[in-house]
Amino acid sequence: MMKNHIRNFCIIAHIDHGKSTLADRMMELTGTVTTRDMKQQLLDSMELEREKGITIKLAPVRMQYNYVPEPTAASLAEVGMYDLNLIDTPGHVDFSYEVSRSLQACEGAVLVVDASQGIQAQTLANVYLAMEQDLVIIPVLNKVDLPAADVPRVSLQVMNLLGCSEDEIIHISAKTGHNVPQVLQAIVERIPAPVSPLAEQAAQLDGRVAIVPTRALIFDSYYDDYRGVILYVRVVDGNIPKGADITMMATGAHGLALEVGHLSPGMQPDPALETGEIGYIVTNLRTTRDARVGDTVTLTENIKKG
Protein backbone atom coordinates (compact mmCIF):
# COMPACT_ATOMS: atom_id res chain seq x y z
CA MET A 1 0.00 0.00 0.00
CA MET A 2 1.32 3.47 -0.92
CA LYS A 3 2.09 5.72 2.05
CA ASN A 4 -0.42 8.34 0.91
CA HIS A 5 -3.15 5.68 1.16
CA ILE A 6 -2.40 4.85 4.80
CA ARG A 7 -4.09 6.45 7.80
CA ASN A 8 -3.00 5.72 11.38
CA PHE A 9 -5.41 6.78 14.13
CA CYS A 10 -6.73 5.84 17.54
CA ILE A 11 -10.06 6.31 19.30
CA ILE A 12 -9.95 8.18 22.60
CA ALA A 13 -12.74 8.92 25.05
CA HIS A 14 -13.89 8.77 28.65
CA ILE A 15 -14.87 5.33 29.92
CA ASP A 16 -18.18 3.98 28.52
CA HIS A 17 -18.59 6.69 25.87
CA GLY A 18 -18.66 4.14 23.05
CA LYS A 19 -15.08 3.65 21.75
CA SER A 20 -15.25 -0.12 21.35
CA THR A 21 -18.77 0.01 19.88
CA LEU A 22 -17.61 2.54 17.28
CA ALA A 23 -14.65 0.27 16.45
CA ASP A 24 -17.11 -2.62 15.99
CA ARG A 25 -19.21 -0.60 13.51
CA MET A 26 -16.10 0.47 11.59
CA MET A 27 -14.97 -3.14 11.22
CA GLU A 28 -18.45 -4.13 10.05
CA LEU A 29 -18.68 -1.34 7.47
CA THR A 30 -15.22 -2.06 6.05
CA GLY A 31 -15.83 -5.81 5.90
CA THR A 32 -12.88 -6.50 8.20
CA VAL A 33 -15.04 -8.94 10.17
CA THR A 34 -17.88 -10.99 8.73
CA THR A 35 -21.36 -10.73 10.24
CA ARG A 36 -21.06 -14.35 11.38
CA ASP A 37 -17.86 -13.67 13.35
CA MET A 38 -18.97 -10.30 14.72
CA LYS A 39 -19.61 -9.88 18.44
CA GLN A 40 -19.84 -6.89 20.75
CA GLN A 41 -16.52 -5.35 21.83
CA LEU A 42 -14.63 -7.55 19.38
CA LEU A 43 -11.25 -5.97 20.14
CA ASP A 44 -11.68 -6.51 23.89
CA SER A 45 -10.19 -10.00 24.05
CA MET A 46 -9.57 -10.26 27.80
CA GLU A 47 -12.21 -12.00 29.90
CA LEU A 48 -12.31 -9.14 32.42
CA GLU A 49 -12.80 -6.58 29.62
CA ARG A 50 -15.84 -8.40 28.28
CA GLU A 51 -17.26 -9.00 31.75
CA LYS A 52 -16.98 -5.38 32.88
CA GLY A 53 -17.55 -3.78 29.47
CA ILE A 54 -14.36 -1.69 29.60
CA THR A 55 -11.17 -1.63 27.55
CA ILE A 56 -7.99 -2.38 29.51
CA LYS A 57 -5.49 -3.32 26.82
CA LEU A 58 -4.89 -1.41 23.59
CA ALA A 59 -5.69 -3.38 20.44
CA PRO A 60 -4.58 -2.55 16.88
CA VAL A 61 -6.52 -3.56 13.76
CA ARG A 62 -6.13 -2.79 10.05
CA MET A 63 -9.23 -2.05 7.98
CA GLN A 64 -9.42 -1.63 4.20
CA TYR A 65 -11.77 1.19 3.26
CA ASN A 66 -12.85 2.10 -0.27
CA TYR A 67 -12.98 5.89 -0.18
CA VAL A 68 -15.49 7.58 -2.47
CA PRO A 69 -16.09 11.24 -1.52
CA GLU A 70 -19.49 12.88 -1.47
CA PRO A 71 -20.30 14.71 -4.74
CA THR A 72 -20.25 18.05 -2.91
CA ALA A 73 -17.05 17.36 -0.94
CA ALA A 74 -13.96 19.38 -1.82
CA SER A 75 -11.56 16.67 -0.70
CA LEU A 76 -7.89 16.50 -1.63
CA ALA A 77 -7.76 12.77 -0.87
CA GLU A 78 -7.58 10.39 -3.82
CA VAL A 79 -10.44 8.02 -4.59
CA GLY A 80 -9.53 4.40 -3.93
CA MET A 81 -8.67 1.81 -1.30
CA TYR A 82 -7.10 2.95 1.98
CA ASP A 83 -5.49 1.06 4.86
CA LEU A 84 -6.95 2.42 8.10
CA ASN A 85 -4.82 1.36 11.06
CA LEU A 86 -6.91 1.75 14.22
CA ILE A 87 -5.68 1.43 17.78
CA ASP A 88 -8.56 1.03 20.25
CA THR A 89 -7.47 2.56 23.56
CA PRO A 90 -8.64 2.25 27.19
CA GLY A 91 -10.81 4.99 28.64
CA HIS A 92 -10.22 4.53 32.36
CA VAL A 93 -7.81 6.92 34.05
CA ASP A 94 -5.76 4.02 35.44
CA PHE A 95 -4.73 3.03 31.90
CA SER A 96 -3.71 6.43 30.54
CA TYR A 97 -0.20 5.10 29.85
CA GLU A 98 -1.74 2.75 27.29
CA VAL A 99 -3.31 5.78 25.58
CA SER A 100 -0.04 7.74 25.49
CA ARG A 101 1.73 4.78 23.85
CA SER A 102 -0.98 4.52 21.19
CA LEU A 103 -0.88 8.22 20.35
CA GLN A 104 2.84 8.05 19.55
CA ALA A 105 2.09 5.58 16.75
CA CYS A 106 -0.62 7.71 15.09
CA GLU A 107 -1.16 10.90 13.11
CA GLY A 108 -4.75 11.43 14.22
CA ALA A 109 -7.32 10.65 16.90
CA VAL A 110 -11.10 10.25 16.86
CA LEU A 111 -12.43 11.90 20.04
CA VAL A 112 -15.71 10.28 21.12
CA VAL A 113 -17.95 12.23 23.51
CA ASP A 114 -21.23 10.93 24.94
CA ALA A 115 -23.97 13.39 23.87
CA SER A 116 -25.88 12.77 27.11
CA GLN A 117 -22.95 13.03 29.55
CA GLY A 118 -20.77 15.64 27.87
CA ILE A 119 -17.04 16.12 28.39
CA GLN A 120 -15.67 14.21 31.37
CA ALA A 121 -12.34 14.28 33.21
CA GLN A 122 -10.66 11.55 31.16
CA THR A 123 -11.86 13.22 27.95
CA LEU A 124 -9.78 16.26 28.87
CA ALA A 125 -6.76 14.18 29.85
CA ASN A 126 -6.79 12.26 26.56
CA VAL A 127 -7.27 15.41 24.47
CA TYR A 128 -4.28 17.06 26.13
CA LEU A 129 -2.18 13.95 25.42
CA ALA A 130 -3.24 14.08 21.75
CA MET A 131 -2.45 17.79 21.53
CA GLU A 132 1.03 17.18 22.97
CA GLN A 133 1.65 14.73 20.10
CA ASP A 134 0.31 17.33 17.60
CA LEU A 135 -2.34 14.95 16.31
CA VAL A 136 -5.32 15.87 14.14
CA ILE A 137 -8.42 15.42 16.32
CA ILE A 138 -11.78 14.47 14.80
CA PRO A 139 -14.62 15.29 17.26
CA VAL A 140 -17.52 12.82 17.35
CA LEU A 141 -20.71 13.03 19.40
CA ASN A 142 -22.00 9.55 20.18
CA LYS A 143 -25.40 8.34 21.44
CA VAL A 144 -27.25 11.23 19.79
CA ASP A 145 -30.30 8.93 19.48
CA LEU A 146 -30.81 8.72 23.26
CA PRO A 147 -33.68 10.73 24.80
CA ALA A 148 -31.23 12.27 27.30
CA ALA A 149 -28.87 13.51 24.57
CA ASP A 150 -28.23 17.27 24.69
CA VAL A 151 -26.46 17.84 21.37
CA PRO A 152 -26.36 21.70 21.42
CA ARG A 153 -24.87 21.84 24.94
CA VAL A 154 -22.27 19.13 24.39
CA SER A 155 -21.36 20.51 20.94
CA LEU A 156 -20.60 23.86 22.58
CA GLN A 157 -18.37 22.10 25.12
CA VAL A 158 -16.43 20.37 22.33
CA MET A 159 -16.07 23.60 20.34
CA ASN A 160 -14.72 25.41 23.42
CA LEU A 161 -12.28 22.58 24.12
CA LEU A 162 -10.90 22.09 20.60
CA GLY A 163 -11.56 25.49 19.05
CA CYS A 164 -13.34 23.79 16.15
CA SER A 165 -16.49 24.80 14.29
CA GLU A 166 -19.84 23.04 14.70
CA ASP A 167 -19.59 21.69 11.13
CA GLU A 168 -16.48 19.69 12.09
CA ILE A 169 -18.35 17.70 14.76
CA ILE A 170 -19.87 14.43 13.52
CA HIS A 171 -23.09 13.27 15.20
CA ILE A 172 -23.36 9.48 15.36
CA SER A 173 -24.95 6.52 17.06
CA ALA A 174 -22.30 3.80 17.25
CA LYS A 175 -24.90 1.30 18.41
CA THR A 176 -27.13 1.68 15.33
CA GLY A 177 -24.36 2.71 12.90
CA HIS A 178 -25.95 6.11 12.18
CA ASN A 179 -23.43 8.42 10.44
CA VAL A 180 -20.48 6.09 11.13
CA PRO A 181 -19.57 6.16 7.38
CA GLN A 182 -19.00 9.91 7.80
CA VAL A 183 -16.37 9.15 10.45
CA LEU A 184 -14.51 6.85 8.03
CA GLN A 185 -14.61 9.56 5.36
CA ALA A 186 -13.35 12.18 7.81
CA ILE A 187 -10.43 9.93 8.77
CA VAL A 188 -9.28 9.77 5.14
CA GLU A 189 -9.90 13.47 4.47
CA ARG A 190 -8.60 15.08 7.67
CA ILE A 191 -5.81 12.85 8.99
CA PRO A 192 -2.51 13.18 7.09
CA ALA A 193 -0.70 10.22 5.58
CA PRO A 194 2.43 9.02 7.40
CA VAL A 195 5.81 10.30 6.30
CA SER A 196 9.39 9.05 6.70
CA PRO A 197 11.38 11.79 8.48
CA LEU A 198 14.75 10.34 7.42
CA ALA A 199 13.63 9.93 3.80
CA GLU A 200 12.50 13.57 3.72
CA GLN A 201 15.89 14.65 5.06
CA ALA A 202 17.65 12.50 2.45
CA ALA A 203 15.57 14.08 -0.32
CA GLN A 204 16.96 17.50 0.65
CA LEU A 205 20.62 16.46 0.19
CA ASP A 206 20.98 18.06 -3.25
CA GLY A 207 19.69 15.01 -5.06
CA ARG A 208 22.25 12.64 -3.54
CA VAL A 209 20.97 9.13 -2.94
CA ALA A 210 20.95 8.18 0.72
CA ILE A 211 20.10 4.82 2.27
CA VAL A 212 17.38 5.29 4.87
CA PRO A 213 17.99 3.11 7.95
CA THR A 214 15.05 1.23 9.42
CA ARG A 215 13.37 2.57 12.55
CA ALA A 216 10.21 1.13 14.13
CA LEU A 217 8.58 2.21 17.40
CA ILE A 218 7.51 -0.55 19.81
CA PHE A 219 4.19 0.58 21.31
CA ASP A 220 3.30 -2.76 22.90
CA SER A 221 4.80 -6.19 23.45
CA TYR A 222 3.82 -9.45 25.11
CA TYR A 223 5.10 -12.97 25.57
CA ASP A 224 3.32 -15.84 23.84
CA ASP A 225 3.97 -19.30 25.31
CA TYR A 226 4.17 -20.87 21.85
CA ARG A 227 5.73 -18.13 19.69
CA GLY A 228 7.95 -16.06 21.98
CA VAL A 229 7.92 -12.26 22.31
CA ILE A 230 5.52 -10.51 19.92
CA LEU A 231 5.98 -6.81 19.23
CA TYR A 232 3.38 -4.32 18.06
CA VAL A 233 5.26 -1.68 16.07
CA ARG A 234 4.84 1.40 13.94
CA VAL A 235 7.43 1.54 11.15
CA VAL A 236 8.72 5.13 11.03
CA ASP A 237 11.49 4.71 8.42
CA GLY A 238 12.59 1.92 6.12
CA ASN A 239 11.07 -1.57 6.24
CA ILE A 240 11.31 -4.83 8.18
CA PRO A 241 11.14 -7.97 6.01
CA LYS A 242 10.34 -11.45 7.28
CA GLY A 243 13.47 -13.27 8.46
CA ALA A 244 15.46 -10.09 9.06
CA ASP A 245 18.05 -9.79 11.83
CA ILE A 246 16.75 -7.08 14.16
CA THR A 247 18.22 -5.12 17.06
CA MET A 248 16.55 -3.18 19.88
CA MET A 249 18.45 0.10 20.05
CA ALA A 250 17.89 0.79 23.77
CA THR A 251 18.47 -2.68 25.23
CA GLY A 252 20.92 -3.84 22.55
CA ALA A 253 19.11 -7.18 22.27
CA HIS A 254 19.40 -9.04 18.94
CA GLY A 255 16.76 -11.29 17.44
CA LEU A 256 15.05 -12.55 14.32
CA ALA A 257 11.82 -11.33 12.75
CA LEU A 258 10.37 -14.82 12.39
CA GLU A 259 7.11 -13.41 11.05
CA VAL A 260 5.80 -9.94 10.28
CA GLY A 261 2.31 -8.83 9.37
CA HIS A 262 -0.81 -6.88 10.35
CA LEU A 263 -3.86 -7.55 12.49
CA SER A 264 -7.31 -7.72 10.86
CA PRO A 265 -8.08 -8.39 13.75
CA GLY A 266 -6.27 -11.77 13.74
CA MET A 267 -2.64 -12.04 12.69
CA GLN A 268 -2.20 -11.81 8.89
CA PRO A 269 1.40 -12.48 7.73
CA ASP A 270 3.01 -10.14 5.17
CA PRO A 271 6.34 -10.30 3.30
CA ALA A 272 7.46 -7.11 5.06
CA LEU A 273 6.27 -4.13 7.10
CA GLU A 274 6.80 -0.92 5.15
CA THR A 275 7.19 2.74 6.14
CA GLY A 276 4.08 4.14 7.84
CA GLU A 277 2.51 0.75 8.55
CA ILE A 278 1.39 -0.60 11.92
CA GLY A 279 1.77 -4.31 12.51
CA TYR A 280 3.35 -7.09 14.53
CA ILE A 281 6.70 -8.86 14.63
CA VAL A 282 7.04 -12.40 15.97
CA THR A 283 10.56 -12.68 17.40
CA ASN A 284 12.74 -15.39 18.89
CA LEU A 285 13.27 -13.31 22.05
CA ARG A 286 12.41 -15.01 25.34
CA THR A 287 11.56 -12.05 27.56
CA THR A 288 9.84 -8.69 27.04
CA ARG A 289 12.70 -7.08 28.99
CA ASP A 290 14.68 -7.32 25.75
CA ALA A 291 12.05 -5.37 23.81
CA ARG A 292 10.60 -2.67 26.01
CA VAL A 293 7.74 -0.42 25.07
CA GLY A 294 9.11 2.82 23.62
CA ASP A 295 12.26 1.13 22.28
CA THR A 296 13.25 1.38 18.60
CA VAL A 297 13.65 -1.67 16.37
CA THR A 298 16.19 -1.48 13.56
CA LEU A 299 17.90 -3.92 11.22
CA THR A 300 21.16 -5.29 12.65
CA GLU A 301 22.92 -4.41 9.38
CA ASN A 302 22.17 -0.73 10.06
CA ILE A 303 24.00 -1.00 13.41
CA LYS A 304 27.02 -2.60 11.74
CA LYS A 305 27.15 0.11 9.06
CA GLY A 306 26.70 2.85 11.64
Polypeptide structure, described:
- This protein has 306 residues and is an alpha+beta fold.
- Helix 3 runs parallel beside helix 4.
- The protein is globular.
Work out the number of β strands.
15
Structural class: alpha+beta
Average predicted confidence as pLDDT: 85
In helices, the fraction of residues equals: 10-25%
Secondary-structure element sequence?
A: EHHEEHEHEHEHHEEEEEEEEEH
Give the overall silhouette.
globular
Evaluate the radius of gyration.
20 Å
Helical run tally: 8
Determine the N-to-C terminus distance: 29 Å
Summarize the biggest pleated sheet: 6 strands, mixed
**How is the largest sheet built, in terms of strand order?**
2-3-1-4-5-6
Question: Which stretches are poorly predicted, pLDDT < 50 over at least 5 residues?
Answer: 41-56
**Proportion of β residues?**
25-35%
Write the layout of secondary structure elements.
Elements: E1 6-13, H1 19-29, H2 47-52, E2 59-67, E3 80-88, H3 96-103, E4 108-114, H4 121-132, E5 136-142, H5 151-162, E6 170-171, H6 180-190, H7 197-203, E7 215-224, E8 228-237, E9 240-241, E10 245-248, E11 254-263, E12 267-270, E13 272-273, E14 278-283, E15 296-299, H8 300-305
Parallel strand pairs: 1-3, 1-4, 4-5, 5-6
Antiparallel strand pairs: 2-3, 7-8, 7-15, 8-14, 9-13, 10-11, 10-15, 11-12, 11-14
Helix pairs in contact: 3-4
Q: What key attributes describe this structure?
A:
alpha+beta; 15 strands; 8 helices; 6-stranded antiparallel beta barrel; 306 residues
Outline of the structure:
The protein is 24% helix and 31% strand. The protein has helices at residues 19-29, 47-52, 96-103, 121-132, 151-162, 180-190, 197-203, 300-305; strands spanning 6-13, 59-67, 80-88, 108-114, 136-142, 170-171, 215-224, 228-237, 240-241, 245-248, 254-263, 267-270, 272-273, 278-283, 296-299. The model is unreliable at 41-56 (pLDDT under 50).
